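Lecture 7 notes: from sequence to structure.
We start with the chain below.
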Amino acid sequence: MGMAGPLVERAVEAAADAERRGFDAFWLPDHLMGWCPDSLWVPDIMPLAERCPSPHALCDPFVLLGAVAGRTTTIGVGTAVTDPVRRHPAVLAQAFLTVDHLSRGRAICGLGAGERENLEPYGLPHDRPAARFAEAVEVIRALWAADGPVSYDGDHWKLDRAVVGLGPYHARRYPPLWAGAHGPRMLDTVGRLCDGWLPTYQGQARWIAGWARVQEAAARYGRTGALTGGVVATVVLGPDHATAHHLLQSPAVRSYALGLPAAVFEDHRASHPLGDGAYGLRDFIPNRWEHAEALAAVTGVSETVVHATTLHGTPDDVAQKLLDLRAAGLRHVVLVNLVPAAAPERTAESRRLLDDLLRRVHRSGP
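Predicted structure tokens for the same chain:
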């Protein structure tokens, strides 16, 4: 059996396990390239390298969601997130409807503007991402809503009597479309066209400000109350706060902060290791970095930034942060557990602590 075999089996089992444990949804990323530079993929820096020979051993999420749908019955299944550059909007419209049928109505369309690491190395455009994203959502919506052929004349997408004839599993109930969005134009598109907001966690103050911008845009288009506030957050749980703080020092944890925009570093009086004005999701292509410069970038991430942008501590600590955000409008959180990447020997413990966190949040109400 090749390396992909165990990866697929583990992912499908993880979804079934998440359903048994009471989680509401199972989300898969959509990447061609992993986030870690090849030059740092060695066991003494990234412990997972002991078990997996490549940081880019990644599966197609739509194929995998089909398998997940067959092993689960109640949990939502979605992408966090795919993009309309590698996949034409019409292809996305059809793919999510297919997953919707396979899951009997549980598909969630998670969509973003695209990340440079998944585009430029493959000869794909990454210019004008906000405009391309807005047009893509319009195309998907139009194809889902139409009873017949659709024509569309945009700057990025053009349809000439195009069709997607497959309807949703439940009549007239299409998969909800959630957007991973951060910039002002993207947030306006979320308020105008989307069903949910799913940004990466950049700290509580930034989430609250972003949600206010989404709500303002929604109100302008008469869509007040039409959206769900969500977030994708890395989480590091420990039996005590000191243990969690120690785990935050791991390069496997710190590397995630490279994806943040320079403005987040400036919020904490720090500089982005990739340079002034850098935005990792836009600027960082991992396999172009040699060992020394990649290690310097990871170790140069401000500890304050890592603490502010990673949910960490005991289940009580993290539950309180989530409850504070719930009061501000948060309704769904996608938790990316970084403990197995930082300290594989603590994987079982981190699962128990996640279950404890889930119980504490659920006990506090919907």
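Points to note: The chain has a mean pLDDT of 95. Residues 4-20 form the longest helix (17 residues).
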